[in-house]
Amino acid sequence: xxxxxxxxxxxxxxxxxxxxxxxxxxxxxxxxxxxxxxxxxxxxxxxxxxxxxxxxxxxxxxxxxxxxxxxxxxxxxxxxxxxxxxxxxxxxxxxxxxxxxxxxxxxxxxxxxxxxxxxxxxxxxxxxxxxxxxxxxxxxxxxxxxxxxxxxxxxxxxxxxxxxxxxxxxxxxxxxxxxxxxxxxxxxxxxxxxxxxxxxxxxxxxxxxxxxxxxxxxxxxxxxxxxxxxxxxxxxxxxxxxxxxxxxxxxxxxxxxxxxxxxxxxxxxxxxxxxxxxxxxxxxxxxxxxxxxxxxxxxxxxxxxxxxxxxxxxxxxxxxxxxxxxxxxxxxxxxxxxxxxxxxxxxxxxxxxxxxxxxxxxxxxxxxxxxxxxxxxxxxxxxxxxxxxxxxxxxxxxxxxxxxxxxxxxxxxxxxxxxxxxxxxxxxxxxxxxxxxxxxxxxxxxxx
Length: 448
Fold this sequence. Notes:
The chain is α+β, with helices and mostly antiparallel strands. The chain has helices spanning 26-37, 47-50, 66-75, 82-94, 103-113, 122-137, 140-143, 148-165, 171-185, 194-221, 227-233, 244-257, 260-275, 277-291, 299-303, 306-318, 350-353, 398-415; strands at residues 40-44, 59-63, 80-81, 145-147, 324-329, 333-335, 338-340, 345-349, 416-420, 428-429, 435-436, 441-446.
């Protein structure tokens, strides 16, 4: 007797519920769901994002694992839209830049920026990074206690503002940083209603845009040697230059992407090293050999810090800066026996992939040695480890972030001893990106 293949649709996907209480364990929960249900499942769409629009998505589809990542980021990437994924989340706040562009538009704008993000260009940024790091950490010993997340955010935003946009450290950068943080993380239900916060967001966004448009106008008059100055002067193959609106979107996303994820990565790196003295001793022993007593770092000396590199990689796995990356579906596709229609919303889960027990030994344990020879667990699949994404649209700022985090760790770990002040580390909360649920407090003591 002939058999007819059963076609499963989006309504047939396994369902999981993700309430606010699950956010601090979200990667592990999604990994467990993938083990139980397979690499594709769904959860109800959040009405706070999509509202009550009957034409909006009713489900968010999760895809977990290296095969899912490869499907979305490489082999079937033309079925997915960054614009339809990211823009509903960040577009109303910061406009459009590389993050939420598609197709030819993205390719054209990325070509304009590529020269400023090559490995060779990093030598121009390293002195800026070192100066900002040294300045921002100079008073740590006198204070005796710091919040690593807050301090890392100051450093990474200062670096992004000066290296990428040409605005030096000072009151203006401090204010811009606070405005960005308020837009993305400023809601506090204990002190205001959502409507009050929404009004405050509009005011913050207006002030942010006016400030950055003023910087763009100044660059048009007197171009500077930074990415904003570069973009102001750039023309594509048809001789077109970028409009103020396009430049504003790029600057917004450069500043957000240039500090948000690097803040998470660097703060957790320092905190985990402080919690794991044996690993810290290995990292410092390597630094003593590679860097000696000198304060001057070079790209070559940073590349030689293998143990630090493994600790950074493990931090990017265990504390994935982007947990779940959004995509809109523009063409029907079939994956793992299910047909997902155009118009759906998909999240490929980096955080869950990084916690799959089929890929990682003891995945819920921070262990940098998993990246060292001979284990090298990340080599099991080219799309198993992706803290900066993967495929043709891998993060343009990958090298920038890696150099900055290494430079920050090298300076701080040679200058200070850090001791966590709380028995348990903070929890991470957030659906796309994360923040700690309380200060990441450490005691600071100068090293001899």
